[in-house]
Write a structure and sequence with these properties.
Elements: H1 3-21, H2 48-56, H3 62-79, H4 83-104, H5 117-135
């Protein structure tokens, strides 16, 4: 460790000890409780601080945000009965999937698959026929 870092560490330690003696660290929130530390061992040591800053700022990468939106739309499609709404949501879903695939630049076999309107429409029709049969 360089002399500058050692000096900085010594200054910090002295300030902490002084604050402890003066009682400035008494009655802090969470005192006496276990610290919840994140397991960041999978992150390279030179990137850990940057990752922690981004996490503490509630930053979410665009790819993760798009994946969340894709998952939300897929979940909504499960309960959607209106064909017009369904069609619009499938178009939106396919747009998000296309954008995600373009950003990632991954091989085609690893790309997210698009949802096709006709397949979804057939599924709804089958579900409607089943519910009509149950009513009879």
């Amino acid at each position: 460790m360089s002399k500058e870092l050692l000096a900085l560490q010594q200054i910090a330690e002295n300030k902490i000890r002084q604050a402890q003696r003066d009682g400035e660290l008494d009655d802090l929130p969470g005192q006496g409780k276990r610290l919840e530390l994140d397991d960041d061992s999978h992150i390279p040591s030179e990137l850990r601080m940057a990752y922690r800053i981004l996490k503490n700022a509630d930053y979410v990468s665009p790819e993760v945000q798009q994946r969340k939106e894709i998952a939300d739309i897929k979940e909504m499609l499960q309960d959607c009965q209106d064909e017009r709404t369904l069609y619009k949501q499938v178009q939106k879903l396919n747009l998000y999937i296309t954008k995600l695939n373009e950003q990632r630049r991954t091989p085609i076999h690893l790309e997210e698959e698009q949802v096709y309107y006709q397949k979804v429409l057939e599924r709804i029709r089958v579900a409607q026929m089943d519910s009509d049969k149950e009513k009879e």
